[in-house]
């Protein structure tokens, strides 16, 4: 009987040590999860800030629109000059790498009427 009590006491002590060890490991895993969650939240916040900054930059600077407008104006001037020099619509389209309809759209109204 005494041996059985000693064995049971020893087993209970081992189980108690094991439970303490398991709690420490769980605490470490929980702490790691918390650190990972905080890191993820920080990364998300940083990405949101970058997206907002880029959106503000795009919306506040009209450079993108100016570049498109200046390119369109340059194409219009070039197409008109070539037309006045006697180039055909097909030749202008080939040299500007545009479709013939796009070239006609760039030309003045009195020229557009001829090709309508």
Structure description:
The chain is mainly alpha-helical. The protein folds into 2 domains: 1-61; 63-116, no CATH class. Helix content is 89%, strand content 0%. It contains 5 helices and no strands. It starts with a helix and ends with a helix. The model has no long low-confidence stretch (mean pLDDT 83).
What is the CA-CA span between the terminal residues?
113 Å
Question: Level of helix content?
Answer: over 70%
Question: Major sheet: size, sense and barrel closure?
Answer: none
Structural class: mainly alpha
In DSSP terms, counting alpha (H) and pi (I) runs of 4 or more, how many helices?
5
Low-confidence stretches: none
Estimated share of beta-strand residues: under 5%
- Order of secondary-structure elements: HHHHH
On the 0 to 100 scale, the average pLDDT is 83
The outline comes out as rod-shaped
Radius of gyration: 38 Å
Number of domains: 2
Count of extended strands = 0
Keywords:
5 helices; rod-shaped; 116 residues; 2 domains; mainly alpha
Gist?
This protein is mostly helical.
Break the fold down into its secondary structure elements and pairings.
Blueprint lengths: L1 H59 L2 H22 L4 H8 L3 H7 L2 H7 L1
Helix pairs in contact: 2-3, 3-4
């Amino acid at each position: 009987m005494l041996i059985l009590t000693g064995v049971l006491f020893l087993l209970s002590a081992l189980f108690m040590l094991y439970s303490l060890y398991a709690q420490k490991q769980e605490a470490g895993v929980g702490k790691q999860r918390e650190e990972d969650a905080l890191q993820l939240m920080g990364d998300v916040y940083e990405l949101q800030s970058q997206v907002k900054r880029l959106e503000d930059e795009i919306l506040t600077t009209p450079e993108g629109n100016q570049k498109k407008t200046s390119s369109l104006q340059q194409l219009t001037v070039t197409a008109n000059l070539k037309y006045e020099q006697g180039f055909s619509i097909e030749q202008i389209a080939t040299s500007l790498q545009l479709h013939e309809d796009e070239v006609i759209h760039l030309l003045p109204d009195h020229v557009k009427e001829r090709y309508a």
